[in-house]
Amino acid sequence: MDFSLNDEQRAWQMKARKFADEVLRPASLARDRIADPAKTIDWDIIKQGSKLGFRTAVVPKEYGGHAIDFVTQALVMAELARGDSAMSKAFSQCWKWSHLISMACTQDQKDRFLKPFMADDTFVLGKGITEPSGGSDNRLPPDDPKAGVKLRAVRDGDDWILNGEKTFIANGNVGKLFFLDVRTDPNAPLRNAVTLFLVPKDTPGFRVGKVFNKSGWRFYQNGEMIFENARVPHANVIGEVNGAYAKSTGDASGDLFGDLELAANALGVCDAACEQSINLARTATQGGKLLKEQQVVQLKINRMCALTEALRSFVMRVAYEHDQRAHSANAGLVMNLATDIIQEVAELNADIHDSAGILDENADKLVRDAFIWSHLAGDAVQRMKVSRRVLK
To answer: Alpha-carbon Rg of the chain, whole angstroms?
Structure first.
């Protein structure tokens, strides 16, 4: 399999690397230290990245986007994450849902939402699934009608009235447009009871609750969304009523891309961790010897680099398969593998620093960011979901 890059792919990679080195990395720790979780985002960074195409990278060219392929997407995400994982995710989060607008929405919906998204450098997107009483059962929905999504919508003429909550939603406090999984049939199992809605930030009856104070990924904010008789027009329904879990809007809206997204981001974090440890080993001394001369440090760096390169190969293979439309369980598997690798590599990096008596905020931050993967991609439910793909 040939993984040589074409000129366009290399150009995007170099542009992302330059942006990560000159903009993201210098701002990373400063944003991470901000105590108020609602103020960690830096809109100047979002604007700068947007003007370079990082926010609109996957939008089709006919709508003014760049339509970069999956290999390029993986390269860009990894390079940005090498500068700051959460900042990389702030951009790639928009890729999932802007792609869904162009792929699954009606022409009217594209005109109303995709055009403003393209025109506004601060227009970021989010999707609301998780609720106070439901998280994992939305990913592997049981047949019990009482399980899963509780945010309820009732039809009222040409509108739907929404009542309920979403919690821990990406960009929930800063997004301008959200895709919401909403229960529209209270008596059916989740697979046949949920409708996907487009809900703008200024929807009457919608307000933001608290912003969550996370240990990692602090730049990438998560908020609580509260709906009290929020009125959403039927024209904002994507696909069929009660059809949110259909393949046309479910798998295509995030599963395949989301798996690759997390793995590519993890790769960037691993690259940063390896870089930190190698630089330290070459310059720091302990007991009169450079760290690089100590066998235990050599073994740890060997392990870090081997795991990182193994992950890189798998990420690029999955990206290539996506471009060939050869989708398989590999996407989920690379996501699960990335969960294990990013945490081990980040912890080895921190261990090398700690053993040398060097307290490094950058190494500590990588560990805190890496732990996020346990929630995103490494829990038992996600692994069972991937296993079901394998066993089909």
So the answer is: 21
Helix (H, G, I), strand (E, B) or coil at 349: helix
Q: How many CB atoms lie within 10 A of CB 26?
A: 12
Instruction: Return the sign of the alpha-carbon dihedral for residues 17, 73, 312, 139.
Output: positive
Q: Are 140 and 384 in contact (CB under 8 A)?
A: yes
Tokens coding 272: 């940063």
User: Is 374 in the same domain as 283?
Assistant: yes
Average pLDDT over residues 122-146: 82
Contact (Cβ atoms closer than 8 angstroms) between residue 346 and residue 340: no
Closest CA to 81 of 9, 171, 12, 21: 21
252, pLDDT greater than 60: no
Q: Are 256 and 236 in contact (CB under 8 A)?
A: no
Identify the CATH number of the domain in which residue 140 sits: 2.40.110.10
Bridge partners (DSSP) of residue 290 are 285
- Do both 80 and 133 map to the same domain? no
User: How far is the CA of 102 from the CAs of 12, 264, 353, 378, in angstroms?
Assistant: 22, 23, 46, 30
| Rama region for 53: left / alpha / beta (φ>0; ψ in -120 to 50; rest) | left
14 three-state secondary structure:
helix
| CB 231, CB 159: distance < 8 Å | yes
227 inside domain: yes
Give the pair of three-digit tokens for residue 92: 């790639």
- Flag whether 222 is in a domain: yes
For residues 17 and 143, state if they share a domain. no
Count CB-CB contacts under 10 A for residue 84: 30
Backbone angles phi and psi of 275, in degrees to 5: -60, -45
pTM for the predicted model, two decimal places = 0.94
Q: How far apart are CA 86 and CA 31, in angstroms?
A: 10
Tell me how far apart the alpha carbons of residues 45 and 219 are, in angstroms, rounded to a whole number: 11
**Boundaries of domain holding 299:** 254-391
Q: Each residue of 353-383: pLDDT tens digit?
A: 999 899 899 999 999 999 999 887 667 777 8
Question: Is residue 246 in a domain?
Answer: no
Query: Which own/partner pairs from 357-361 qualify as long-range (CB within 8 Å, at least 24 positions apart)?
Result: 357/286, 358/280, 358/284, 360/276, 360/280, 361/29, 361/32
Percent of the residues in the chain that have a pLDDT greater than 90, as a whole number: 79
Residue 244 lies in a domain: no
